[in-house]
């Protein structure tokens, strides 16, 4: 039955893709394939999706690192993680591992090549301290990618669910990182990639 359900979901996704040349509404404004491409992950990589939620990016990252990589879906919401684990099983994504965490600190089973933070930065307490501690979970050459609403235009109405790019750059600098890339992919969002600064 699970394989039939998975097959029906895949067929449903193919039908939706055919009906909506640009993908679903979220795909059209968030450009997930371009975001994943900019992250430059490879098969075999270890990735943590911090604030994975429903797994919108987690599942795409899982495909990008397959067959030998791992994507840790990291969230404080255990109900969302349970649903994501079920969906990943149905889609045959055996590269996904769910990791429940407290809201005030990061703990991963092992260091990663990439820590991806989408629409989550503003939820984290004391971001400079949080990411200063997170460096312990980066492999040599590891990076942190942050995709965050700037809070401009219509998004300014979602108070508290955005962070000005200048603040992110400053806090990540305080945490001991240097900015290595910026991408202009998602309207109304800032997308930057950091690495630990050479000591």
Estimate the mean pLDDT confidence.
Answer: 86
Beta-strand proportion: 25-35%
Strand order of the largest sheet: 3-2-1-4-5-7-6
CATH superfamily of the largest domain: Vaccinia Virus protein VP39
The largest sheet, given as strand count, sense and whether it forms a barrel, is:
7 strands, mixed
CATH topology value of the largest domain = Rossmann fold
Low-confidence spans: 13-24, 155-159
Structural class: alpha/beta
- Radius of gyration (Å): 17 Å
Beta strands, count: 7
Question: What percent of the residues sit in helical stretches (DSSP H or I)?
Answer: 25-40%
> What is the CATH architecture term of the largest domain?
3-Layer(aba) Sandwich
Order of SSEs, N→C? HHHEHEHEEHEHEE
What is the CATH class of the largest domain? Alpha Beta
From the spread of the alpha carbons, the general shape counts as globular
Question: Which SSEs are present, and which pair or pack?
Answer:
Blueprint: H1 2-19, H2 25-30, H3 32-39, E1 46-50, H4 56-65, E2 70-75, H5 78-90, E3 96-100, E4 112-118, H6 127-134, E5 138-149, H7 165-174, E6 177-183, E7 189-196
Parallel strand pairs: 1-2, 1-4, 2-3, 4-5
Antiparallel strand pairs: 5-7, 6-7
Describe the protein's architecture and organization.
It is built from 7 helices and 7 strands. It has helices spanning 2-19, 25-30, 32-39, 56-65, 78-90, 127-134, 165-174; strands at 46-50, 70-75, 96-100, 112-118, 138-149, 177-183, 189-196. A 7-stranded mixed beta sheet has the order 3-2-1-4-5-7-6, with helices on both faces. Helix 6 (127-134) links the parallel strand 4 and strand 5. The longest helix has 18 residues, at 2-19.
